[in-house]
Amino acid sequence: MSDGPIRPLTIVVTGGDGQLGQELVRLCSKRCEVVGLNRSQLDVTDKYQCLLGIKRLQPDAIVHAAAYTAVDRAETDKDGAWRVNVEGTRNVAGAAEAVGASFCYISTDYVFDGEGTIPYGELDVPNPRSVYGKTKLEGERLASALCEKTFIVRTSWVYGKYGNNFVRTMLRLARQNTKLKVVNDQKGSPTYTHDLAKFIIELVQTKKYGVYHATNSGHCTWYEFAKAVFEEAGMEHIPIAPCTTEEYPRPAPRPKYSVLGNDNLIHAGFQPLRHWRAALRDYMSRDCGGD
């Protein structure tokens, strides 16, 4: 005898109007009801609003995608970055624990110093060099300390259907006949939000708590990424020159090597995300035009 229909899992996404947040909402399935909350609906820096809002929704899982991601501005706005990335994480993780929800914290390759030469593992000791990286690492620590059922997902070089990203910037500059120079001594893994969101939704339906590195497979430099963008767009004629990080100084230090190994993801039984070039091809044929 049937007990009736199974209630779909309810997932709350903070930062629901962001690049990853909108993708998570878009990918809701029959098994999941995804509620995206933007800042006006849930100010993560307000502890009591977080607690009341999460208690009202009673989610099974929370994906904490809200973050202060202005990497360069964070160097001079340390308090602002701390409020969102640290205090905001404390508030949402505490609310998750209060309602018995699992908590998925979205983190970054910037928790590492970028001085490595082989992919960073989940157990490698973080050593962030930027304010952004330091606040995201502190958010990781609070997430694990405050919520018993915590997933930490580190990712890198994110782009997707929603918002501005490196791919769109390259195409825009090319159309403006801008003379292009792109950094060729920083190496990482471009990650398509569609693939990342699919993994996150799969992950939070399990009890496989812990730290995961989730990026598209393979790696490249920003220069190699830009060349691939033009090749996929049929714009191989666009002149583009490699340059060094020193030739393109920024307020916040960038990791020179931020490739993330994904041993935990594989050992937990998940499929690695597809190669970044295949993901880029799919993005440009399907999502590059925006909404």
Structure description:
With 291 residues, the chain is of the alpha/beta class. It has one domain (9-163, 190-218, 256-276): Rossmann fold (3-Layer(aba) Sandwich), CATH 3.40.50. It has helices at residues 19-26, 47-57, 78-99, 131-146, 166-175, 193-203, 222-232, 263-267, 276-286; strands spanning 9-14, 32-37, 61-64, 102-108, 150-155, 158-159, 180-183, 187-188, 191-192, 210-213, 220-221, 240-243. The chain has a 6-stranded parallel sheet, sandwiched between helices. Strand 3, helix 3 (78-99) and strand 4 form a beta-alpha-beta unit. The longest helix has 22 residues, at 78-99. The model has no long low-confidence stretch (mean pLDDT 94).
Q: Can I get a quick summary?
A:
This protein is of the alpha/beta class and 291 residues long. The chain contains 9 helices and 12 strands. It has a single domain, classed as NAD(P)-binding Rossmann-like Domain (Rossmann fold).
Q: Which helices and strands occur, and which strands form pairs?
A:
Blueprint: E1 9-14, H1 19-26, E2 32-37, H2 47-57, E3 61-64, H3 78-99, E4 102-108, H4 131-146, E5 150-155, E6 158-159, H5 166-175, E7 180-183, E8 187-188, E9 191-192, H6 193-203, E10 210-213, E11 220-221, H7 222-232, E12 240-243, H8 263-267, H9 276-286
Parallel strand pairs: 1-2, 1-3, 3-4, 4-5, 5-10, 6-9, 7-12
Antiparallel strand pairs: 8-11
Mind telling me the CATH class? Alpha Beta
Classification by helices and strands: alpha/beta
Placed side by side, the strands forming the largest sheet appear as 2-1-3-4-5-10
Number of domains: 1
Radius of gyration: 19 Å
| Beta strand count | 12
The CATH superfamily is identified as NAD(P)-binding Rossmann-like Domain
Order of helices and strands: EHEHEHEHEEHEEEHEEHEHH
Percentage of residues assigned to helices: 25-40%
Count of helical regions: 9
Distance between the termini: 45 Å
| Average pLDDT rating | 94
Strand content: 15-25%
